[in-house]
From TrEMBL, chain A:
Membrane topology, record value: Multi-pass membrane protein
Annotated localization: Endoplasmic reticulum membrane; Membrane
Task of the protein: Catalyzes the third of the four reactions of the long-chain fatty acids elongation cycle. This endoplasmic reticulum-bound enzymatic process, allows the addition of two carbons to the chain of long- and very long-chain fatty acids/VLCFAs per cycle. This enzyme catalyzes the dehydration of the 3-hydroxyacyl-CoA intermediate into trans-2,3-enoyl-CoA, within each cycle of fatty acid elongation. Thereby, it participates to the production of VLCFAs of different chain lengths that are involved in multiple biological processes as precursors of membrane lipids and lipid mediators.
Protein name stated in the entry: Very-long-chain (3R)-3-hydroxyacyl-CoA dehydratase
Organism: Suricata suricatta (Meerkat)
UniProtKB/TrEMBL annotation, chain B:
One Pfam family of this chain: TECR_N
CDD domains with a match to the protein in the record: Ubl_TECR
Catalysed reaction, written as an equation: (2E,7Z,10Z,13Z,16Z)-docosapentaenoyl-CoA + NADPH + H(+) = (7Z,10Z,13Z,16Z)-docosatetraenoyl-CoA + NADP(+); (2E,8Z,11Z,14Z)-eicosatetraenoyl-CoA + NADPH + H(+) = (8Z,11Z,14Z)-eicosatrienoyl-CoA + NADP(+); a very-long-chain 2,3-saturated fatty acyl-CoA + NADP(+) = a very-long-chain (2E)-enoyl-CoA + NADPH + H(+); (2E,7Z,10Z,13Z,16Z,19Z)-docosahexaenoyl-CoA + NADPH + H(+) = (7Z,10Z,13Z,16Z,19Z)-docosapentaenoyl-CoA + NADP(+)
Residue stretches making up the 3-oxo-5-alpha-steroid 4-dehydrogenase C-terminal domain: 193-346
GO CC entries: endoplasmic reticulum membrane
Membrane topology of the entry: Multi-pass membrane protein
Family: Belongs to the steroid 5-alpha reductase family.
EC number(s) given by UniProt: 1.3.1.93
Primary localization class, coarse: endoplasmic reticulum
Protein name in UniProt: Very-long-chain enoyl-CoA reductase
Length: 254, 346
Protein backbone atom coordinates (compact mmCIF):
# COMPACT_ATOMS: atom_id res chain seq x y z
CA UNK A 1 0.00 0.00 0.00
CA UNK A 2 2.83 2.36 0.76
CA UNK A 3 4.29 1.27 -2.56
CA UNK A 4 0.97 1.71 -4.33
CA UNK A 5 0.14 5.02 -2.80
CA UNK A 6 3.48 6.56 -3.64
CA UNK A 7 3.02 6.11 -7.36
CA UNK A 8 -0.72 6.62 -7.48
CA UNK A 9 -1.45 9.78 -5.68
CA UNK A 10 1.30 12.30 -6.22
CA UNK A 11 1.02 14.64 -9.11
CA UNK A 12 3.85 15.89 -7.12
CA UNK A 13 7.38 17.11 -7.18
CA UNK A 14 6.81 19.59 -9.96
CA UNK A 15 6.17 18.20 -13.40
CA UNK A 16 4.45 20.37 -15.96
CA UNK A 17 4.98 17.48 -18.36
CA UNK A 18 3.15 14.25 -17.87
CA UNK A 19 0.05 13.58 -15.90
CA UNK A 20 1.42 12.41 -12.64
CA UNK A 21 -1.22 10.40 -10.82
CA UNK A 22 -4.31 11.35 -8.89
CA UNK A 23 -7.15 12.53 -11.09
CA UNK A 24 -6.90 15.87 -12.65
CA UNK A 25 -9.85 16.16 -15.02
CA UNK A 26 -8.66 15.73 -18.58
CA UNK A 27 -9.37 19.28 -19.71
CA UNK A 28 -8.32 21.96 -17.27
CA UNK A 29 -4.55 22.36 -17.32
CA UNK A 30 -3.52 24.93 -14.74
CA UNK A 31 -0.20 26.24 -15.93
CA UNK A 32 0.43 27.89 -12.59
CA UNK A 33 3.60 25.87 -11.91
CA UNK A 34 6.37 26.68 -9.44
CA UNK A 35 8.55 29.73 -9.99
CA UNK A 36 12.13 29.45 -11.28
CA UNK A 37 13.67 29.25 -7.82
CA UNK A 38 11.23 26.60 -6.68
CA UNK A 39 11.77 24.67 -9.91
CA UNK A 40 15.53 24.71 -9.38
CA UNK A 41 15.09 23.46 -5.83
CA UNK A 42 12.69 20.72 -6.94
CA UNK A 43 15.03 19.56 -9.67
CA UNK A 44 17.82 19.28 -7.13
CA UNK A 45 15.51 17.49 -4.70
CA UNK A 46 14.37 14.97 -7.30
CA UNK A 47 17.88 14.38 -8.62
CA UNK A 48 19.16 13.75 -5.10
CA UNK A 49 16.31 11.33 -4.41
CA UNK A 50 16.89 9.50 -7.69
CA UNK A 51 20.55 9.20 -6.80
CA UNK A 52 19.72 8.04 -3.30
CA UNK A 53 17.50 5.22 -4.45
CA UNK A 54 20.10 4.28 -7.06
CA UNK A 55 22.59 3.96 -4.22
CA UNK A 56 20.17 1.60 -2.50
CA UNK A 57 19.72 -0.38 -5.72
CA UNK A 58 23.45 -0.69 -6.25
CA UNK A 59 23.92 -1.55 -2.60
CA UNK A 60 21.46 -4.42 -2.93
CA UNK A 61 23.16 -5.79 -6.03
CA UNK A 62 26.62 -5.57 -4.53
CA UNK A 63 25.52 -7.19 -1.29
CA UNK A 64 23.86 -10.00 -3.23
CA UNK A 65 26.97 -10.61 -5.28
CA UNK A 66 29.18 -10.52 -2.18
CA UNK A 67 27.00 -12.79 -0.04
CA UNK A 68 25.94 -15.11 -2.82
CA UNK A 69 22.37 -15.21 -1.48
CA UNK A 70 19.41 -12.85 -1.35
CA UNK A 71 18.73 -13.35 2.35
CA UNK A 72 19.28 -10.61 4.93
CA UNK A 73 20.29 -7.95 2.41
CA UNK A 74 18.41 -5.35 4.50
CA UNK A 75 21.45 -4.71 6.70
CA UNK A 76 23.60 -3.57 3.81
CA UNK A 77 21.20 -0.82 2.74
CA UNK A 78 19.59 -0.03 6.06
CA UNK A 79 21.10 3.44 6.46
CA UNK A 80 20.49 4.91 2.99
CA UNK A 81 16.99 3.35 3.00
CA UNK A 82 16.13 5.07 6.26
CA UNK A 83 17.70 8.34 5.17
CA UNK A 84 16.11 8.67 1.75
CA UNK A 85 12.70 7.28 2.64
CA UNK A 86 12.48 9.56 5.68
CA UNK A 87 13.68 12.45 3.51
CA UNK A 88 10.50 12.03 1.48
CA UNK A 89 8.72 13.80 4.35
CA UNK A 90 9.85 16.96 2.61
CA UNK A 91 7.31 16.19 -0.08
CA UNK A 92 4.54 16.95 2.39
CA UNK A 93 6.12 20.35 2.89
CA UNK A 94 6.30 20.90 -0.86
CA UNK A 95 2.55 20.37 -1.14
CA UNK A 96 1.79 22.49 1.93
CA UNK A 97 3.86 25.38 0.60
CA UNK A 98 2.30 25.01 -2.85
CA UNK A 99 5.29 24.40 -5.08
CA UNK A 100 3.87 21.00 -5.90
CA UNK A 101 0.23 20.72 -6.98
CA UNK A 102 -0.70 17.63 -4.98
CA UNK A 103 -3.00 17.27 -2.03
CA UNK A 104 -1.27 17.56 1.32
CA UNK A 105 -3.53 14.92 2.80
CA UNK A 106 -2.86 12.35 0.10
CA UNK A 107 0.88 12.96 0.10
CA UNK A 108 1.03 12.80 3.90
CA UNK A 109 -0.83 9.54 3.85
CA UNK A 110 1.54 7.87 1.43
CA UNK A 111 4.77 9.17 2.91
CA UNK A 112 3.67 8.38 6.44
CA UNK A 113 2.75 4.84 5.49
CA UNK A 114 6.25 4.31 4.09
CA UNK A 115 7.90 5.92 7.10
CA UNK A 116 5.68 3.80 9.36
CA UNK A 117 6.88 0.61 7.75
CA UNK A 118 10.53 1.61 7.90
CA UNK A 119 10.60 2.85 11.48
CA UNK A 120 7.61 1.49 13.39
CA UNK A 121 7.83 -2.01 11.96
CA UNK A 122 11.18 -2.92 10.39
CA UNK A 123 13.42 -0.81 12.61
CA UNK A 124 11.46 -1.43 15.80
CA UNK A 125 11.09 -5.17 15.50
CA UNK A 126 14.65 -6.34 14.92
CA UNK A 127 13.60 -9.92 14.41
CA UNK A 128 11.89 -9.19 11.08
CA UNK A 129 14.94 -7.54 9.53
CA UNK A 130 16.21 -10.87 8.30
CA UNK A 131 12.87 -11.79 6.71
CA UNK A 132 12.70 -12.18 2.94
CA UNK A 133 9.49 -10.13 2.87
CA UNK A 134 11.58 -7.06 3.67
CA UNK A 135 13.59 -7.57 0.50
CA UNK A 136 10.35 -7.88 -1.42
CA UNK A 137 9.09 -4.42 -0.53
CA UNK A 138 12.55 -2.81 -0.60
CA UNK A 139 13.04 -3.93 -4.20
CA UNK A 140 9.54 -2.80 -5.16
CA UNK A 141 10.05 0.60 -3.54
CA UNK A 142 13.55 1.04 -4.99
CA UNK A 143 12.52 0.46 -8.59
CA UNK A 144 9.35 2.53 -8.16
CA UNK A 145 11.17 5.46 -6.60
CA UNK A 146 14.01 5.55 -9.10
CA UNK A 147 11.47 5.79 -11.90
CA UNK A 148 9.19 8.18 -10.04
CA UNK A 149 11.88 10.69 -9.07
CA UNK A 150 13.47 10.64 -12.52
CA UNK A 151 9.98 11.14 -13.96
CA UNK A 152 9.58 14.27 -11.88
CA UNK A 153 13.07 15.49 -12.72
CA UNK A 154 12.49 15.20 -16.44
CA UNK A 155 9.01 16.67 -16.19
CA UNK A 156 10.35 19.73 -14.41
CA UNK A 157 12.89 20.17 -17.17
CA UNK A 158 10.13 19.72 -19.74
CA UNK A 159 11.93 16.87 -21.37
CA UNK A 160 10.22 13.64 -20.43
CA UNK A 161 11.40 10.58 -22.36
CA UNK A 162 8.50 8.34 -23.26
CA UNK A 163 10.35 5.38 -21.76
CA UNK A 164 10.22 6.92 -18.30
CA UNK A 165 6.56 7.77 -18.66
CA UNK A 166 5.85 4.26 -19.89
CA UNK A 167 7.84 2.71 -17.07
CA UNK A 168 6.07 4.76 -14.44
CA UNK A 169 2.66 3.82 -15.68
CA UNK A 170 3.39 0.19 -16.50
CA UNK A 171 5.80 -1.34 -14.01
CA UNK A 172 3.45 -0.62 -11.17
CA UNK A 173 1.31 -3.48 -12.43
CA UNK A 174 3.87 -5.86 -10.99
CA UNK A 175 5.57 -3.64 -8.43
CA UNK A 176 2.41 -2.71 -6.50
CA UNK A 177 1.31 -6.23 -5.66
CA UNK A 178 4.92 -7.08 -4.96
CA UNK A 179 5.37 -4.19 -2.57
CA UNK A 180 2.06 -4.78 -0.86
CA UNK A 181 2.86 -8.44 -0.35
CA UNK A 182 6.23 -7.58 1.13
CA UNK A 183 4.68 -5.03 3.46
CA UNK A 184 1.88 -7.29 4.66
CA UNK A 185 4.17 -10.27 5.20
CA UNK A 186 6.59 -8.11 7.17
CA UNK A 187 3.88 -6.73 9.43
CA UNK A 188 2.53 -10.24 9.91
CA UNK A 189 6.00 -11.51 10.82
CA UNK A 190 6.38 -8.75 13.38
CA UNK A 191 3.17 -9.59 15.22
CA UNK A 192 4.37 -12.30 17.63
CA UNK A 193 7.34 -10.21 18.70
CA UNK A 194 5.16 -7.19 19.31
CA UNK A 195 2.82 -9.30 21.43
CA UNK A 196 5.69 -10.79 23.38
CA UNK A 197 7.45 -7.51 24.15
CA UNK A 198 4.29 -5.45 24.56
CA UNK A 199 5.90 -3.06 22.11
CA UNK A 200 4.48 0.50 22.06
CA UNK A 201 1.58 -0.68 24.16
CA UNK A 202 0.02 0.76 27.30
CA UNK A 203 -2.37 -1.16 29.48
CA UNK A 204 -4.78 -0.34 32.28
CA UNK A 205 -4.76 0.72 35.03
CA UNK A 206 -2.88 3.99 34.66
CA UNK A 207 -3.22 7.62 35.67
CA UNK A 208 -4.63 8.81 32.34
CA UNK A 209 -7.13 6.01 31.84
CA UNK A 210 -5.86 5.18 28.41
CA UNK A 211 -4.73 2.03 26.71
CA UNK A 212 -3.18 1.18 23.38
CA UNK A 213 -2.52 -2.24 21.96
CA UNK A 214 0.05 -2.02 19.18
CA UNK A 215 -0.60 -5.63 18.22
CA UNK A 216 -4.29 -4.90 17.55
CA UNK A 217 -3.29 -1.69 15.82
CA UNK A 218 -1.03 -3.57 13.39
CA UNK A 219 -3.83 -6.00 12.62
CA UNK A 220 -6.13 -3.06 11.87
CA UNK A 221 -3.48 -1.67 9.55
CA UNK A 222 -3.29 -4.97 7.70
CA UNK A 223 -7.07 -5.07 7.35
CA UNK A 224 -7.07 -1.53 5.97
CA UNK A 225 -5.09 -2.72 2.97
CA UNK A 226 -8.20 -4.57 1.80
CA UNK A 227 -10.25 -1.51 0.89
CA UNK A 228 -7.35 0.81 0.13
CA UNK A 229 -5.07 -1.19 -2.12
CA UNK A 230 -7.63 -2.07 -4.85
CA UNK A 231 -8.72 1.55 -5.06
CA UNK A 232 -5.18 2.80 -5.57
CA UNK A 233 -4.35 0.00 -7.97
CA UNK A 234 -7.34 0.50 -10.22
CA UNK A 235 -6.85 4.22 -10.11
CA UNK A 236 -3.37 3.72 -11.53
CA UNK A 237 -4.72 1.39 -14.19
CA UNK A 238 -7.23 4.05 -15.15
CA UNK A 239 -4.51 6.70 -15.22
CA UNK A 240 -2.39 4.41 -17.38
CA UNK A 241 -5.11 4.08 -19.99
CA UNK A 242 -5.67 7.80 -20.04
CA UNK A 243 -2.06 8.91 -20.17
CA UNK A 244 -0.45 6.29 -22.37
CA UNK A 245 -3.22 6.30 -24.97
CA UNK A 246 -3.14 10.11 -25.01
CA UNK A 247 0.54 10.05 -25.89
CA UNK A 248 -0.07 7.37 -28.53
CA UNK A 249 -2.53 9.67 -30.27
CA UNK A 250 -0.05 12.54 -30.20
CA UNK A 251 2.62 10.32 -31.66
CA UNK A 252 0.33 9.38 -34.50
CA UNK A 253 0.01 12.96 -35.57
CA UNK A 254 3.73 13.64 -35.60
CA UNK B 1 -38.72 49.66 -13.21
CA UNK B 2 -37.50 46.25 -14.22
CA UNK B 3 -40.83 45.48 -15.79
CA UNK B 4 -40.63 48.53 -18.05
CA UNK B 5 -37.14 47.60 -19.14
CA UNK B 6 -38.37 44.11 -19.94
CA UNK B 7 -41.22 45.56 -21.97
CA UNK B 8 -38.80 47.60 -24.05
CA UNK B 9 -36.57 44.60 -24.52
CA UNK B 10 -39.51 42.53 -25.65
CA UNK B 11 -40.68 44.99 -28.26
CA UNK B 12 -37.21 45.53 -29.51
CA UNK B 13 -36.54 41.87 -30.17
CA UNK B 14 -39.01 40.32 -32.54
CA UNK B 15 -39.98 36.67 -32.33
CA UNK B 16 -39.27 36.46 -28.65
CA UNK B 17 -42.61 35.37 -27.36
CA UNK B 18 -44.41 37.79 -29.62
CA UNK B 19 -46.53 36.54 -32.49
CA UNK B 20 -46.74 38.09 -35.94
CA UNK B 21 -49.42 40.52 -34.84
CA UNK B 22 -47.26 41.78 -31.98
CA UNK B 23 -49.41 40.22 -29.31
CA UNK B 24 -47.88 37.79 -26.78
CA UNK B 25 -47.70 34.33 -28.22
CA UNK B 26 -49.61 31.71 -26.23
CA UNK B 27 -47.40 28.71 -25.79
CA UNK B 28 -49.04 25.71 -24.19
CA UNK B 29 -46.29 24.62 -21.84
CA UNK B 30 -45.30 25.19 -18.24
CA UNK B 31 -46.81 28.30 -16.74
CA UNK B 32 -47.00 29.46 -13.18
CA UNK B 33 -50.16 31.57 -13.20
CA UNK B 34 -52.67 32.97 -15.68
CA UNK B 35 -51.85 36.64 -16.46
CA UNK B 36 -54.32 39.30 -15.53
CA UNK B 37 -53.05 41.78 -18.09
CA UNK B 38 -50.47 41.47 -20.84
CA UNK B 39 -47.82 40.80 -18.23
CA UNK B 40 -44.32 40.10 -19.49
CA UNK B 41 -43.27 36.57 -18.94
CA UNK B 42 -39.77 35.29 -18.60
CA UNK B 43 -38.42 32.17 -20.14
CA UNK B 44 -36.08 30.12 -18.09
CA UNK B 45 -33.78 27.54 -19.50
CA UNK B 46 -31.92 25.26 -17.15
CA UNK B 47 -28.63 23.79 -18.27
CA UNK B 48 -26.42 21.26 -16.58
CA UNK B 49 -23.49 23.18 -15.09
CA UNK B 50 -20.94 20.57 -16.12
CA UNK B 51 -22.16 19.30 -19.49
CA UNK B 52 -24.16 22.42 -20.56
CA UNK B 53 -26.85 20.01 -21.62
CA UNK B 54 -30.28 21.61 -21.81
CA UNK B 55 -32.28 20.02 -19.05
CA UNK B 56 -35.44 22.05 -18.97
CA UNK B 57 -37.12 24.96 -20.68
CA UNK B 58 -39.70 26.89 -18.72
CA UNK B 59 -42.04 29.03 -20.74
CA UNK B 60 -44.15 31.85 -19.29
CA UNK B 61 -42.50 32.25 -15.94
CA UNK B 62 -43.82 35.10 -13.84
CA UNK B 63 -41.27 37.88 -13.36
CA UNK B 64 -41.70 37.79 -9.60
CA UNK B 65 -41.29 34.05 -9.42
CA UNK B 66 -38.75 33.04 -6.84
CA UNK B 67 -35.94 30.57 -7.30
CA UNK B 68 -37.86 28.28 -4.97
CA UNK B 69 -40.81 28.28 -7.37
CA UNK B 70 -38.53 27.63 -10.32
CA UNK B 71 -37.01 24.72 -8.44
CA UNK B 72 -40.47 23.30 -7.92
CA UNK B 73 -41.18 23.59 -11.65
CA UNK B 74 -37.90 21.87 -12.45
CA UNK B 75 -38.78 19.01 -10.13
CA UNK B 76 -41.90 18.37 -12.19
CA UNK B 77 -39.82 17.41 -15.21
CA UNK B 78 -37.05 15.78 -13.22
CA UNK B 79 -38.69 14.28 -10.14
CA UNK B 80 -35.49 12.64 -8.93
CA UNK B 81 -34.07 16.09 -8.26
CA UNK B 82 -36.25 17.42 -5.49
CA UNK B 83 -35.75 21.12 -4.68
CA UNK B 84 -33.47 20.52 -1.70
CA UNK B 85 -30.85 18.90 -3.88
CA UNK B 86 -30.94 21.53 -6.62
CA UNK B 87 -28.31 24.21 -6.85
CA UNK B 88 -29.22 26.82 -9.44
CA UNK B 89 -26.77 29.51 -10.41
CA UNK B 90 -26.26 32.21 -13.00
CA UNK B 91 -22.74 31.12 -13.73
CA UNK B 92 -21.73 27.46 -13.90
CA UNK B 93 -18.87 28.11 -11.49
CA UNK B 94 -20.63 30.79 -9.47
CA UNK B 95 -22.47 30.83 -6.20
CA UNK B 96 -25.84 29.20 -5.70
CA UNK B 97 -28.87 31.42 -5.99
CA UNK B 98 -31.01 31.67 -2.90
CA UNK B 99 -34.55 30.33 -2.76
CA UNK B 100 -35.86 33.81 -1.95
CA UNK B 101 -34.22 35.48 -4.97
CA UNK B 102 -36.77 36.89 -7.40
CA UNK B 103 -36.34 36.21 -11.10
CA UNK B 104 -36.83 39.74 -12.38
CA UNK B 105 -34.35 41.13 -9.85
CA UNK B 106 -31.57 38.93 -11.18
CA UNK B 107 -29.17 40.24 -13.82
CA UNK B 108 -30.81 38.27 -16.62
CA UNK B 109 -32.56 39.06 -19.83
CA UNK B 110 -36.11 37.95 -20.47
CA UNK B 111 -34.71 34.54 -21.28
CA UNK B 112 -32.81 33.52 -18.19
CA UNK B 113 -30.19 30.82 -18.33
CA UNK B 114 -29.67 29.00 -15.07
CA UNK B 115 -27.07 26.35 -14.45
CA UNK B 116 -28.00 23.32 -12.40
CA UNK B 117 -25.81 21.32 -10.10
CA UNK B 118 -26.99 18.23 -8.26
CA UNK B 119 -26.11 18.50 -4.58
CA UNK B 120 -26.69 14.81 -4.07
CA UNK B 121 -29.16 13.11 -1.80
CA UNK B 122 -30.13 15.37 1.06
CA UNK B 123 -31.16 14.78 4.62
CA UNK B 124 -32.67 17.24 7.05
CA UNK B 125 -30.46 18.87 9.67
CA UNK B 126 -32.91 17.94 12.40
CA UNK B 127 -32.71 14.26 11.48
CA UNK B 128 -28.93 14.34 11.44
CA UNK B 129 -28.68 16.11 14.78
CA UNK B 130 -31.16 13.82 16.50
CA UNK B 131 -29.39 10.70 15.25
CA UNK B 132 -25.88 11.85 15.99
CA UNK B 133 -26.80 12.96 19.54
CA UNK B 134 -29.05 10.06 20.50
CA UNK B 135 -26.20 7.63 19.77
CA UNK B 136 -23.72 8.89 22.39
CA UNK B 137 -26.47 9.15 24.99
CA UNK B 138 -27.42 5.52 24.53
CA UNK B 139 -23.92 4.14 23.92
CA UNK B 140 -22.41 5.72 27.03
CA UNK B 141 -25.12 4.10 29.14
CA UNK B 142 -24.30 0.68 27.70
CA UNK B 143 -20.79 1.06 29.10
CA UNK B 144 -21.96 2.65 32.35
CA UNK B 145 -24.23 -0.28 33.12
CA UNK B 146 -21.49 -2.64 31.96
CA UNK B 147 -23.68 -4.68 29.68
CA UNK B 148 -22.15 -8.08 28.81
CA UNK B 149 -19.36 -8.56 26.25
CA UNK B 150 -17.67 -5.23 26.93
CA UNK B 151 -15.66 -5.95 30.03
CA UNK B 152 -14.93 -9.39 31.52
CA UNK B 153 -17.99 -11.46 32.43
CA UNK B 154 -17.41 -11.09 36.14
CA UNK B 155 -18.11 -7.36 35.74
CA UNK B 156 -21.44 -7.71 33.92
CA UNK B 157 -23.99 -5.25 35.28
CA UNK B 158 -21.75 -4.28 38.16
CA UNK B 159 -21.44 -0.70 39.32
CA UNK B 160 -18.29 1.40 39.75
CA UNK B 161 -17.24 2.20 43.30
CA UNK B 162 -16.01 5.65 42.32
CA UNK B 163 -18.36 8.61 42.78
CA UNK B 164 -16.77 10.46 39.90
CA UNK B 165 -17.83 7.70 37.49
CA UNK B 166 -21.49 8.21 38.42
CA UNK B 167 -21.07 11.96 38.21
CA UNK B 168 -19.48 11.65 34.79
CA UNK B 169 -22.42 9.59 33.55
CA UNK B 170 -24.84 12.25 34.76
CA UNK B 171 -22.84 15.02 33.09
CA UNK B 172 -22.41 13.20 29.80
CA UNK B 173 -26.07 12.20 29.65
CA UNK B 174 -27.20 15.68 30.61
CA UNK B 175 -25.07 17.15 27.86
CA UNK B 176 -26.62 15.04 25.12
CA UNK B 177 -30.17 15.33 26.45
CA UNK B 178 -29.67 19.09 26.39
CA UNK B 179 -28.48 18.87 22.79
CA UNK B 180 -31.47 16.77 21.74
CA UNK B 181 -33.92 19.18 23.36
CA UNK B 182 -32.19 22.16 21.79
CA UNK B 183 -32.43 20.52 18.38
CA UNK B 184 -36.15 20.00 18.84
CA UNK B 185 -37.10 23.27 20.53
CA UNK B 186 -34.40 25.89 20.33
CA UNK B 187 -32.36 25.93 17.15
CA UNK B 188 -33.54 27.72 14.01
CA UNK B 189 -31.72 26.31 11.02
CA UNK B 190 -30.78 28.44 7.98
CA UNK B 191 -30.60 25.43 5.72
CA UNK B 192 -33.17 22.67 5.79
CA UNK B 193 -30.86 19.93 4.57
CA UNK B 194 -27.31 18.69 4.25
CA UNK B 195 -25.78 15.99 2.02
CA UNK B 196 -26.79 12.47 3.01
CA UNK B 197 -23.24 11.20 3.41
CA UNK B 198 -22.78 13.62 6.29
CA UNK B 199 -24.93 11.51 8.57
CA UNK B 200 -22.55 8.57 8.23
CA UNK B 201 -19.50 10.73 8.77
CA UNK B 202 -21.00 12.58 11.74
CA UNK B 203 -22.42 9.53 13.45
CA UNK B 204 -19.13 7.66 13.12
CA UNK B 205 -17.40 10.59 14.80
CA UNK B 206 -19.85 11.11 17.67
CA UNK B 207 -20.71 7.47 18.30
CA UNK B 208 -17.12 6.31 17.92
CA UNK B 209 -15.70 8.82 20.36
CA UNK B 210 -18.55 8.27 22.82
CA UNK B 211 -17.81 4.54 22.89
CA UNK B 212 -14.08 5.14 23.21
CA UNK B 213 -14.45 7.57 26.15
CA UNK B 214 -17.16 5.56 27.87
CA UNK B 215 -15.08 2.40 27.70
CA UNK B 216 -12.32 3.88 29.84
CA UNK B 217 -14.38 5.93 32.26
CA UNK B 218 -16.58 2.97 33.13
CA UNK B 219 -13.79 0.41 33.09
CA UNK B 220 -13.34 -1.74 36.21
CA UNK B 221 -9.70 -0.62 36.27
CA UNK B 222 -10.56 3.09 36.02
CA UNK B 223 -8.24 5.33 38.07
CA UNK B 224 -9.96 8.37 39.66
CA UNK B 225 -8.40 11.85 39.32
CA UNK B 226 -5.03 12.46 41.00
CA UNK B 227 -6.24 15.41 43.10
CA UNK B 228 -9.40 13.69 44.20
CA UNK B 229 -12.59 15.48 45.19
CA UNK B 230 -11.00 18.92 44.74
CA UNK B 231 -10.27 18.23 41.12
CA UNK B 232 -13.73 16.80 40.51
CA UNK B 233 -15.44 19.79 42.17
CA UNK B 234 -13.48 22.30 40.10
CA UNK B 235 -14.14 20.36 36.93
CA UNK B 236 -17.85 20.10 37.72
CA UNK B 237 -18.03 23.87 38.26
CA UNK B 238 -16.38 24.49 34.89
CA UNK B 239 -18.72 22.01 33.24
CA UNK B 240 -21.92 23.46 34.71
CA UNK B 241 -20.94 27.06 33.98
CA UNK B 242 -20.11 26.19 30.39
CA UNK B 243 -23.32 24.21 29.91
CA UNK B 244 -25.35 27.18 31.16
CA UNK B 245 -23.28 29.48 28.98
CA UNK B 246 -23.75 27.37 25.89
CA UNK B 247 -27.49 27.20 26.49
CA UNK B 248 -27.71 30.98 27.03
CA UNK B 249 -25.97 31.61 23.74
CA UNK B 250 -28.31 29.23 21.91
CA UNK B 251 -31.29 31.07 23.33
CA UNK B 252 -29.81 34.45 22.45
CA UNK B 253 -29.16 33.32 18.86
CA UNK B 254 -32.68 31.96 18.61
CA UNK B 255 -34.14 35.29 19.70
CA UNK B 256 -32.15 37.06 17.00
CA UNK B 257 -34.12 35.29 14.33
CA UNK B 258 -37.93 35.30 14.10
CA UNK B 259 -39.60 31.91 13.54
CA UNK B 260 -39.54 30.74 9.92
CA UNK B 261 -37.16 33.45 8.79
CA UNK B 262 -33.60 33.20 7.61
CA UNK B 263 -32.44 36.67 8.60
CA UNK B 264 -28.98 37.22 9.96
CA UNK B 265 -28.10 39.89 12.52
CA UNK B 266 -25.07 40.70 14.63
CA UNK B 267 -25.50 39.03 18.03
CA UNK B 268 -25.02 41.30 21.04
CA UNK B 269 -24.79 40.66 24.81
CA UNK B 270 -28.13 40.61 26.64
CA UNK B 271 -28.97 40.95 30.31
CA UNK B 272 -27.85 37.37 30.84
CA UNK B 273 -24.21 37.53 32.05
CA UNK B 274 -23.35 34.39 30.13
CA UNK B 275 -24.00 36.26 26.89
CA UNK B 276 -21.47 38.95 27.77
CA UNK B 277 -18.89 36.72 26.11
CA UNK B 278 -20.29 38.12 22.84
CA UNK B 279 -18.21 41.21 23.61
CA UNK B 280 -15.07 39.20 23.03
CA UNK B 281 -15.95 36.39 20.62
CA UNK B 282 -18.16 35.81 17.61
CA UNK B 283 -19.10 32.26 18.54
CA UNK B 284 -19.30 31.99 22.33
CA UNK B 285 -21.42 28.87 21.97
CA UNK B 286 -18.31 27.09 20.66
CA UNK B 287 -16.18 28.65 23.39
CA UNK B 288 -18.51 27.30 26.06
CA UNK B 289 -18.71 23.93 24.33
CA UNK B 290 -14.92 23.51 24.41
CA UNK B 291 -15.00 24.64 28.00
CA UNK B 292 -17.55 21.96 28.88
CA UNK B 293 -15.41 19.23 27.41
CA UNK B 294 -12.27 20.52 29.10
CA UNK B 295 -14.23 20.39 32.33
CA UNK B 296 -15.28 16.84 31.59
CA UNK B 297 -11.68 15.87 30.76
CA UNK B 298 -10.41 17.27 34.06
CA UNK B 299 -13.24 15.56 35.90
CA UNK B 300 -12.52 12.15 34.48
CA UNK B 301 -8.76 12.59 33.94
CA UNK B 302 -9.13 10.47 30.85
CA UNK B 303 -6.86 10.96 27.84
CA UNK B 304 -9.46 9.95 25.21
CA UNK B 305 -11.72 12.71 26.56
CA UNK B 306 -8.88 15.21 26.19
CA UNK B 307 -8.30 14.00 22.61
CA UNK B 308 -12.01 14.31 21.84
CA UNK B 309 -11.94 17.86 23.20
CA UNK B 310 -8.94 18.66 21.04
CA UNK B 311 -10.53 17.32 17.85
CA UNK B 312 -13.79 19.12 18.66
CA UNK B 313 -11.91 22.33 19.36
CA UNK B 314 -10.11 22.10 16.03
CA UNK B 315 -13.37 21.64 14.14
CA UNK B 316 -15.18 24.37 16.03
CA UNK B 317 -12.32 26.77 15.46
CA UNK B 318 -12.62 26.19 11.72
CA UNK B 319 -16.36 26.84 11.91
CA UNK B 320 -15.90 29.90 14.16
CA UNK B 321 -13.34 31.41 11.80
CA UNK B 322 -15.72 30.88 8.89
CA UNK B 323 -18.62 32.43 10.76
CA UNK B 324 -16.46 35.34 11.88
CA UNK B 325 -15.38 35.97 8.30
CA UNK B 326 -19.03 35.92 7.13
CA UNK B 327 -19.98 38.40 9.82
CA UNK B 328 -17.15 40.72 8.81
CA UNK B 329 -18.15 40.50 5.16
CA UNK B 330 -21.82 41.06 5.76
CA UNK B 331 -21.72 43.78 8.43
CA UNK B 332 -19.58 46.89 8.01
CA UNK B 333 -20.06 47.88 11.64
CA UNK B 334 -18.99 44.54 13.12
CA UNK B 335 -17.33 45.02 16.53
CA UNK B 336 -13.56 45.00 15.96
CA UNK B 337 -12.64 43.65 19.40
CA UNK B 338 -14.20 40.26 18.75
CA UNK B 339 -12.16 37.17 17.91
CA UNK B 340 -13.74 34.05 16.45
CA UNK B 341 -13.59 31.63 19.38
CA UNK B 342 -10.98 32.43 22.05
CA UNK B 343 -10.96 35.97 23.48
CA UNK B 344 -8.00 37.96 22.18
CA UNK B 345 -6.26 34.89 20.82
CA UNK B 346 -8.01 32.86 18.15
Amino acid sequence: MAAAAATAATKGNGGGGGRAGAGEAGGARKKKGPGPLATAYLVIYNVVMTAGWLVIAVGLVRAYLAKGSYHSLYYSIEKPLKFFQTGALLEILHCAVGIVPSSVVLTSFQVMSRVFLIWAVTHSVKEVQSEDSVLLFVIAWTITEIIRYSFYTFSLLNHLPYLIKWARYTLFIVLYPMGVSGELLTIYAALPFVRQAGLYSISLPNKYNFSFDYYAFLILIMISYIPIFPQLYFHMIHQRRKILSHTEEHKKFE
Amino acid sequence: MDLNMSLVAREASPGLGLGLNGLPRITPTKTTKKPKKAVLFFEVEILDAKTREKLCFLDKVEPHATIAEIKNLFTKTHPQWYPARQSLRLDPKGKSLKDEDVLQKLPVGTTATLYFRDLGAQISWVTVFLTEYAGPLFIYLLFYFRVPFIYGHKYDFTSSRHTVVHLACICHSFHYIKRLLETLFVHRFSHGTMPLRNIFKNCTYYWGFAAWMAYYINHPLYTPPTYGAQQVKLALAIFVICQLGNFSIHMALRDLRPAGSKTRKIPYPTKNPFTWLFLLVSCPNYTYEVGSWIGFAIMTQCLPVALFSLVGFTQMTIWAKGKHRSYLKEFRDYPPLRMPIIPFLL
